[in-house]
Amino acid sequence: MRKTTAFLAAFLFTASFAGSVWTVSAEETKETENTSTEQQTAAETKPEENTPTETEKEKTEENKQGESSETETKPEENSTEQNSEEPKEEEPKEEHADLKKFVKNIAENDDQANEFVNKLLAHEMNAADALRDFFSKKNYDDNEEGRKQLIADLCKYVYMDESASDNEYSSKKVFFDYGMSKTYFLMRFVHSDPFDNFCKAEGIDRGNIELTENRDKNVQVTDYIQKIYNIVLGRRADVNGLNSWTGEMINNGKTAATVLAGFLNSEEFRNRKTSDEEYAAILFRMCRGIEPEEKELKEFVESTLAKGHTREAVLRKFVRSDEFGKYCDEHKIPRGEINVGGWSTNYDGFKIYISPDTGLMERGYVQVNGIPCYFDNDGSLRTDWSD
After folding, report:
1. Sorting pLDDT into bands at 50, 70 and 90, what band is 31?
2. Same domain, 178 and 225
3. Quick one: 227 and 207 in the same domain?
4. Cα(328)–Cα(183) distance, rounded to whole angstroms?
5. Residue 21 lies in a domain
6. Cα gap 216→233, rounded to integer Å
7. Contact (CB, 8 A) for 263 and 228
8. Do residues 274 and 296 both lie within one domain?
9. Does residue 255 sit in the same domain as residue 308?
10. What was the pLDDT predicted at 18?
11. How far apart (Å, rounded) are the C-alpha atoms in residues 226 and 181?
12. Which of 145-149, 309-313, 352-356, 366-370 has the highest mean pLDDT?
């Protein structure tokens, strides 16, 4: 019995010990298995991280293909750049494109534009007539703004090049100062080489701009008349006066001297009531082209006008000056002469002689044209020693 009991006790103790050992061993085994699994997983994962996925492989292949493509493309790009330096064949230009542009600018509407194109190509009208009609409806002020606008419009509608406006105004500004008309400037543009070449290229008649105002017919004459207005009358010429006086020189044979005398004898000038000094200074500016110094002016007046010399006789001296002769030659206008003095008859029927140099009647013994003469105190010729 005791043996049986001892055996059972030993058996139970052994079993209990074995169970305890199993339990610990199982947990450790589990941890070991987990650790082993993690290590195995990590070991398996590392190669996967280093090894591209399917998508990454595709991207890598695309990149390689892209690099390959870029490598292959570069020569083509270089080839394209080289080819781009070669002149490209231009597309055919629209027939009469420049003519259509020209007409569209000056026509009132599309129908009129088409009509102009057809008539110009058929030589039933010319370009000058079309432009004259267009500009006749435009007005420009006689100031800097108006002048610049006229030149800008001429560049736009005649040259079809607005960028030329500044240069054209600079080169033609002086003609505005002379007093030339709008028609004169239109003529200059229409008769120019650029517009003439345009008309020839388009196969149309250029035509001509006729100048009808006297002021537009001779630039040098107009310049001279404007100068007289500025210096003698102290103002800019009005259009009617400018046309009238230029007409006297161009059409009626008046000279620079006789026209100047006409201004000095005009009512407008006489109403200014100029002093002898002012009169002489005007002649210095007008005929000699200088502003006299005070001393020079005083000495001249004292030796002429202050001694009773007439203004006509003084004018004659200036008209005969070298400076005035040079001015007339450069401007290609006739100088002319001032007729002062000479033989005349007084109220008693006696002959008298006015000195051309002084404008005064001669008295006493003098030589006239080399002939000795005697004049009494009234200036009447009493005797001469001519044969």
Report:
1. very low
2. no
3. no
4. 26
5. no
6. 22
7. yes
8. yes
9. yes
10. 44
11. 13
12. 145-149
Over 80: is that where the pLDDT of 363 sits? Answer: yes
Chosen domain end from 212, 245, 262: 212
Residue 357 pLDDT: 86
Number of compact structural domains in the chain: 3
Cα(310)–Cα(265) distance, integer angstroms: 13
* Domain shared by 189 and 224, yes or no: no
Surface-to-core class of residue 290, CB atoms within 10 Å of its CB (0-12 exposed, 13-18 middle, 19+ buried) = exposed
**In which domain, by residue range, is 250 found?**
219-331
Calpha distance 155→242 (Å, rounded) = 27
Indicate if 315 and 355 belong to the same structural domain.
no
Is residue 137 assigned to a domain?
Answer: yes
Q: Kindly report the three-state secondary structure assignment for every residue of 306-351.
A: HHCCCHHHHHHHHHCCHHHHHHHHHHCCCCCCCCCCEEEECCCCCE
Phi, psi of 47 (to 5 degrees): -60, -35
| pLDDT above 90 as % of the chain | 63
Query: Which residues share a beta bridge with 365?
Result: 374
The strand pairing partners of 345, in sequence order, are 351
| Angle value at C-alpha 135, between 130 and 137, nearest 5 degrees | 110
In three-state secondary structure terms, 180 is: coil
Does residue 22 fall inside a structural domain? no
The total number of residues written for the chain in this structure? 387
